[in-house]
């Protein structure tokens, strides 16, 4: 495939190798997308470049930026081959207003009409049953990798936390403004503390 | 016990069964020594992981506290009700996601990565055509594959610097949270390995237990 064929959403000319193909055209990177059987130009994939009239390839700093970003996407697509998930898992948070607002600012929030949110703001009138139900929902979801929970809220649902023995999702207890972190109450550290008996150390 | 018998013990020897029995107990003690060495290294690794976990927790707690302080400053600048759940968007897409990889059997490792790429802002007209000054212009619907919107935009266009600082603190906190989750998994995995080795050692040396 020459450089000109890679522009736009070009159809493959015949050789449909399932292997990932990447080539450098100027500062742009093209990749094979087996899902749609087409090659994509960085501009088309990222939606920010428009081909100027005359068929001359994109030039300039935008191409360099697009190429670098495309290389990052390409590396991301190579990650599944290394055993990492394609889309990635979410981070859920159950906490007070400031904790949830802060982590949502960090960019973990997901909310749309089709899916349940991955966060819960615990207020004064939030019941323990609601917290426990939300916690169990997060545990049962396949797309959540870590659950962040304020420690004082974790104390309310300690039985549910202690019953969770799987590695995913991982549960992290974090402090809140009114309640500093206490390592003695952390489920993970309590299990680690009970690792050894006097007999084991003989 | 039988599956731990040293293969040398089954080889015919000039001394007959008595020497074979001695070799068998030597093999058992050798196996016990190996197990103890493995236990020791696993224990040292566990203690190192616990120490690292404690350090990372302290840093995470510090970052989260910095984030709260910055949020409080932003609230002071923008108004009490200007930074809170009322400003959350009705549609959110995660900017960061978690990549989980399995290093060994049962051992998960987490890494926070940015999901999607940010499309550079395009300045200027999209098409090289005359703009219509009359009549409704139909703006194209945004594609679903657009980059997720920065949550800072929920709070306005010009947000105070303290809100950006809060975002940076909580983003650092997310990376630390992934490291801590990986460490916790490693500690749990090490704990189960330790128990398994202790059980094997008890089988080899019931008298010592």
Automatic annotation (TrEMBL), chain A:
What range does the record give for the signal peptide?
A: none
Q: Which protein family is named in the record?
A: Belongs to the V-ATPase F subunit family.
Keyword list, A-Z: Hydrogen ion transport, Ion transport, Transport
Q: Which gene encodes it?
A: ATP6V1F
Molecular-function annotations in GO: proton-transporting ATPase activity, rotational mechanism
Q: What is this protein called?
A: V-type proton ATPase subunit F
Cited InterPro entries: ATPase_V1-cplx_f_g_su, ATPase_V1-cplx_fsu_euk, ATPase_V1_fsu_sf
Q: Where in the cell is it found?
A: Cytoplasmic vesicle, Secretory vesicle, Synaptic vesicle membrane
Protein topology in the membrane: Peripheral membrane protein
Its chief place of residence is: membrane
Question: Main role?
Answer: Subunit of the V1 complex of vacuolar(H+)-ATPase (V-ATPase), a multisubunit enzyme composed of a peripheral complex (V1) that hydrolyzes ATP and a membrane integral complex (V0) that translocates protons. V-ATPase is responsible for acidifying and maintaining the pH of intracellular compartments and in some cell types, is targeted to the plasma membrane, where it is responsible for acidifying the extracellular environment.
Matching entries from Pfam families are given as: ATP-synt_F
GO CC annotation terms, alphabetical: proton-transporting V-type ATPase, V1 domain; synaptic vesicle membrane
TrEMBL record, chain B:
Give a GO molecular function annotation for the protein.
unfolded protein binding
Q: Does the keyword Zinc-finger apply?
A: no
Q: Where in the cell is it found?
A: Cytoplasmic vesicle, COPI-coated vesicle; Endoplasmic reticulum-Golgi intermediate compartment; Endosome; Lysosome
Q: Name one GO cellular component term.
A: COPI-coated vesicle
> What the protein does?
Accessory component of the proton-transporting vacuolar (V)-ATPase protein pump involved in intracellular iron homeostasis. In aerobic conditions, required for intracellular iron homeostasis, thus triggering the activity of Fe(2+) prolyl hydroxylase (PHD) enzymes, and leading to HIF1A hydroxylation and subsequent proteasomal degradation. Necessary for endolysosomal acidification and lysosomal degradation. May be involved in Golgi homeostasis.
Q: Give the multimer and partner information.
A: Accessory component of the multisubunit proton-transporting vacuolar (V)-ATPase protein pump.
**Name of the protein in question:** Vacuolar ATPase assembly protein VMA22
- In the UniProt record, the gene name given for this protein reads CCDC115
